[in-house]
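Known limitations

Files may contain more than one protein. Parsers should not assume a single record per file. Below, a two-record file is shown to illustrate correct handling: read the sequence, read the token line, then continue until end of file.
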Amino acid sequence: MVDHRTFERITKQQEIILRGERHSPIVCVKLKLGSVDMIGVVDHLTAEGVFEAAVEEAAAVPGALGAVLCDFEGEAVVTRWGVGPLPPDVEAEAQKHVPNAVRSQVSVGQYLLRLAAAEPCALLMTFSRKTLSRHGGPLDTLEIAYRNVGLVVLSLPEDFYLVIVLDRKRIRSFGHARRVAQKLRPRLVREIT
């Protein structure tokens, strides 16, 4: 067990670790048992913690609307919104198409982010099968450019993938997002496999 001052110091270390500046994370855990606060140290992040930290880093890419880690069915495992609220006109238009039951569970922005990230799932599966059948090797990265939105899709083991959704009005190229995704790959691969 550690005292309160040590807990704060280690918590600051954790913030540094979550920014990707260290490879063997230390995590502080604070539990309340009855009237007693218990503070402990765990020597690694859970897979979920690693996923959340990686997706948060991806969502922080300049010009990113957000990032999503998806499973083999295109379902969002972790979602992070990036730059702020949706433009009012986009949100107003989306409100017409998002079911009320969904709006009560997640924001319109989160819903649209998940929807955008689910879309590449079928493409990834198709391209992966085609490139492997033609001995081209596994698919690494896919970039999709729509008029206003760009997607950088990083293929991962076990048919997981990371999607960085970009506001094309705020970026000049996909390069920075692609480099961040490639930098996150080893961390994500370690937890997936």
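...continuing to the second record:
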Amino acid sequence: MGTWPLSAGWREIEFGVEIEWVGAPQGAVQLLPGWEIVAEDLLFFDDGRMVDPVTGDDVMGGELVSPRLTWEEREQIAAMCARLKALGAAGNWSCGLHVHADGSRWGQALLLPGLDAARATEAALRRVLDTAPHRLDYAPPTTAALREAVARLPAPAGPDAVLQRLVYGQRPQEHRGGINFRSLFEKGSVELRLPNASLEPEAIYRTIELWLRWVAAVGEGRELSASPADLIRSLGAPAEGYPPRQDAPAWWWRRRAMDRALYPVLLPLCREWVQELYPQVNVPCDIVWIDGTAGDRVVALAEAGDVKVYLVFGTGAGGWKRIEATTAWRPDLASGRPSPGDIPLSAAAGWSSGEKRPFP
């Protein structure tokens, strides 16, 4: 179960980072020992082309995952960022930066105090980090309802029971929060998913320091302020110098609006199709993303347990029809960005709120 409260110096907490990039081939990246590259969904080039969400030497983007690091080992991040930039890589608007802080000294005892601290300070952290609005699709907030759902679990609750309740949003990419305590049970860490992308080491170091100081403060039971200035002052964290905000282009908001509009229509069709394809899977599928920008063809990535399948639908006078189901990614499954006339920008106003490798 662990112990809370318990004091720890922020430099004593091990951490890991996940750095997303586009524009350099995975196979050309020389990895330091313990570092690895994993596939990442929904990375885009600025012209609207999707980076292939697979691993492969010629894939022009992905997620760089560090091993557990100490503060003294942080220069490994600078070395890896330099290698990426030398290959032409960038952390653009579609990329993110995630920081994991080791939570094992507190264990499950940190969960409820951590959720309370997240509710109190998450808006302030978004202000400090200047999180781009579209990044919140992958970093939904901690709500009172979520906290109460977890608090109602009978003690002692095992990890599986906690994870069934600790779901930040409906769709797969929304399951992990901006301050993500699911990671405590999946990887032994507390994850920050709010930062904008960057390949600049100093900006990444400041983000890591902020997060380690936050976790250390919550771990020792300190009450933290909801004011951005007061929060930074009480933590002793840098006030500026974090990865800068990069806003999503207009075509991304149009694509997103189309996804949201098609989701309730396609979800029952996807569930029926996946159940026929995989009768042994006993969990209902959900849709990770929908690309409806290819005229009379719509592609949905459906996920059910360990199953991921691309479902291609056609449209016509007779309604929706099945065209293809495949588990193998092909670049032609994503059509690119929608044209300006596909959907009005007014329909894309607003926003709502990925399986990761284990924190080593």
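Parsers that stop after the first record will miss the second one. For reference, the second record is described as follows. Residues 340-360 have pLDDT under 50 and may be disordered.
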